[in-house]
Design brief:
alpha+beta; Rossmann fold; Dna Ligase, domain 1; D-amino Acid Aminotransferase, Chain A, domain 1; four-stranded parallel β-sheet; 12 helices; 31% helix; globular
Length: 457
């Protein structure tokens, strides 16, 4: 079988799910840029031909390291599933003459460049301004309509996102955001190819008003979706749409749900705007995860596109509902093998599946007053789920049982996650209801079974 070099870094689907998908098409050699998950090692390590752990490196040194290791194992393909390594891997593939995301990969990573390309291409985006200094903040409030969203240009998982209403709040938020990004970098959740810029680069953008009521067949859905896809030799193949529960302030994800309960005619509209967005970025061969904000009267705005699959268990959700092994499809494409893509994006599947993020906050984003210890096994899940539904703990993306729940902090976003659960149900409506009951009931469930450790204040 062909040798495949897999670059591991923080983020992306868990290894126990991803590595068997890759190993089905070649011998997997892992180059780990971050500590590998020990709690699931028995599940993922047997799929590896070799595992090499290296000290963290950045920029061109990292690209050279990847190239050297690829040459050592005679890799026919190099890939990563981490947001933080996609740029370095793309540059390595260019140097090696292998299929990859291509020269324009930064456009799918730096939110400032991404928005400028979309603005120039006529793709709908909120008004925005780059922030490099206090003067930029003042100019942004002169040209944009507050409140504004302060974003780290290279972040993921809503990290370092803050709502600001005036220049003073923006100044304080920028300082807080840089601290959050610096702390994230220490934990391995930061851009690896341009780490110096990843901490300090920010933008301010207008907050567009989302409205899901005109879009979904039923209440309770969030006002944005993501289109999962693959770009193959420059040709974009949108595969399906994933919906959301409503986010909590500022825009932290609570749960992603596949499929989205949208009429087909509306799914086709979203498919076309995602096509315009991805085509404008000029990518080569890579996965794509394109987020679209939905508004009243059919309005849409592009949030971002990533040159990788959706995080958490998105790939597993798609396989469960639509039968598409997206990781395997991408691997075969990178190896130059023939891949059969749907002629049009799939809009109907079988059942529903979702990724539920466990946070110490209620549905409105209010932090829990007390922080109990996390313990998946202590919760009576059968009392919270619909008939026919099931829930599993994603061990790699969860804290050990007995750990005190992290306090939810608005600027921290997904960094406040205690655990991730994979939920499956007979329908998207049932799954949405299941997730809602879990979010509402979990503080009581944990407090009743796991003694409260400390106050959230």
């Amino acid at each position: 079988m062909s040798p495949i070099l897999f670059i591991y870094a923080k983020g992306g689907p868990p290894l126990e799910y991803a590595l068997p998908k890759i190993a089905a098409h070649g011998d997997v050699h892992v180059l780990a840029l971050a500590p590998l998950p020990q709690s699931t090692e028995a599940a993922w390590k047997p799929w590896c031909a070799s595992v090499t752990r290296v000290q963290p490196q950045e920029g061109e040194e990292l690209v050279s390291l990847i190239c050297a290791h690829a040459a050592r194992v005679e890799a026919a393909a190099v890939l990563t599933l981490s947001e933080y390594a996609v740029v370095a891997v793309a540059h390595a593939c260019l140097r090696l003459g292998l299929a990859g995301a291509g020269e324009q990969v930064v456009a799918a990573r730096d939110k400032r460049l991404m928005r400028q390309i979309w603005h120039d291409a006529g793709v709908p985006v909120p008004g925005f301004a780059e922030i490099h200094s206090s003067d930029d903040i003042a100019l942004a409030f002169e040209s944009l309509t507050p409140p504004l969203l302060l974003k780290a240009a290279w972040s993921a998982g809503s990290t370092a996102h803050l709502t600001v209403r005036n220049e003073q709040e923006a100044e304080r938020g920028w300082k807080t955001g840089r601290s959050v990004m610096a702390a994230s970098s220490e934990e391995g959740y930061a851009e690896l190819h341009r780490a110096d810029e990843g901490v300090s680069d920010f933008l301010l953008e207008e907050i567009v008003i989302g409205d899901a009521t005109d879009w979904f067949d039923g209440p309770g859905w969030g006002d944005y979706v993501s289109v999962e896809g693959i770009v193959a030799d420059g040709v974009y193949h949108p595969l399906c749409i994933t919906g959301r529960m409503p986010t909590i302030p500022p825009f932290t994800e609570r749960a992603s749900i596949t499929p989205a309960a949208l009429p087909e005619v509306l799914q086709r509209r979203i498919e076309e705007v995602s096509r315009a967005a991805v085509d404008a970025l000029g990518l080569g061969t890579c996965a794509t995860h394109t987020e679209v904000k939905l508004g009243a009267d059919g309005a849409m705005w592009l949030i971002e596109t990533a040159a990788r699959f959706g995080g958490v268990m998105t790939t597993c959700q798609v396989e469960t509902v639509f039968g598409l092994d997206m990781i395997g499809m991408l691997v075969r494409q990178l190896l130059g093998e023939k891949v059969e893509y749907p002629s049009r994006m799939l809009t109907e599947g079988s059942g529903a599946a979702g990724s539920l993020v466990i946070l110490a906050a209620d549905t409105a984003g209010e932090p829990w007053k007390h922080l109990p210890r996390w313990d998946f096994s202590a919760v009576d899940w059968s009392s919270l789920l619909s008939g026919g539904s099931r829930i599993e703990l994603v061990r790699e993306l969860s804290l050990p049982a007995g750990t005190v729940m992290p306090a939810y902090e608005e600027a921290g976003g997904a960094n406040s996650m205690a655990a991730l659960c994979f939920v499956a149900a007979d329908s998207g409506t049932a799954l949405l209801a299941d997730c809602g009951r879990i979010v509402e009931s979990l503080p009581h469930e944990l407090t009743a079974t796991c003694p409260t450790s400390r106050s959230a204040s």
